[in-house]
């Protein structure tokens, strides 16, 4: 008795796919769209390839991670992630298959009909990367081979930092370190450090990659590889409720750098100095400021005209005048003296009664008593309080005048 012939499943699926392609060719669909949809249907079948010579999926994923993903991250992500230049994203397989304004970017297993390959070869009007830069031949060959294999994508791609794979010198990680040091560290230190380093506003510290992943009161602020889901990127774009930095706004170049950094996997050098040492930094020049110098007891000068000097301060003044060939002004009469002191300390002239009392006081400390009385007067506080409020540009209607950096509402919070 003959057994019925069993048709292998992979043979049946393969012939069905060929029939589908033939039907599409007879339709009016564009060639790129036909092939892309057919390939997508083929990849939807979850049947493992058992045919002789088939490359294991694990090898395809390894090829993508080592050869393709670094090229996309280094040469394409800047324009084709959150930026979506030409309506195209290249940070997921689904986005590449969906394509942009010109249609699907790849046709899995058919590199010769893939717009991505046409663009990187720069043999037609569409040339990528732009501005006359062309990928090396070996990188183009890797992209061709990747598409020929079916454009396999690592399902865990979004959670893996990509920068250490950008060059052959993977162990050094230099692209990530250079990008972080040149682009990201200055932004975090200068624009964010005042609120998220010396103090942790909102429970968030930006001192390390770990603290960014831990986040603050609102949760983690970055999702490595996915700027669209990263709270940090949303905040600096200022398109939602959360707007950072507080009272200011980053430049477009700074926002783009942060977006690119998160897309690359938020690389952070493993061995690096802190983002900025905690606390206020005191430089050597700052330490030389006169008020920070230790107290010393200088030698008291002994000027010739000792009769004029009443205190050691007078002797310093008299010595300085002598060095410049000057003499002290004649001593003022008591009416002039009390008028000068009262106007200087209170901003008001002395009353007739105050003048008369001072003129009648013949004690050695008569003027000292006048000065003590003026310093204890509320008028003295009012006079100098107004002076320093003017210096600080104080105004009851708008506290922003107190902030020299112009950060807007509640600048000192």
Question: What does it look like?
Answer:
With 413 residues, the protein is mostly helical. The protein has 16 helices and no strands. Helix 1 (9-26) packs antiparallel against helix 2 (31-44), helix 3 packs across helix 6 and helix 13 crosses helix 14.
Q: Could you tell me how far the N terminus lies from the C terminus, measured between alpha carbons in angstroms?
A: 91 Å
**Which stretches are poorly predicted, pLDDT < 50 over at least 5 residues?**
1-56, 161-174
Based on CA atoms alone, the radius of gyration comes out at 38 Å
How is the main sheet built?
A: none
Helix content: 40-55%
Hey, roughly how much beta strand do the residues contain?
under 5%
| Helix-strand makeup class | mainly alpha
Characteristic key phrases:
413 residues; mainly alpha; rod-shaped; disordered N terminus
Summarize the structure.
This protein has 413 residues and is mostly helical. The chain has helices spanning 9-26, 31-44, 57-75, 93-98, 115-121, 137-148, 174-196, 209-214, 231-237, 252-263, 284-287, 312-323, 334-346, 352-360, 366-375, 378-391.
Break the fold down into its secondary structure elements and pairings.
Blueprint: H1 9-26, H2 31-44, H3 57-75, H4 93-98, H5 115-121, H6 137-148, H7 174-196, H8 209-214, H9 231-237, H10 252-263, H11 284-287, H12 312-323, H13 334-346, H14 352-360, H15 366-375, H16 378-391
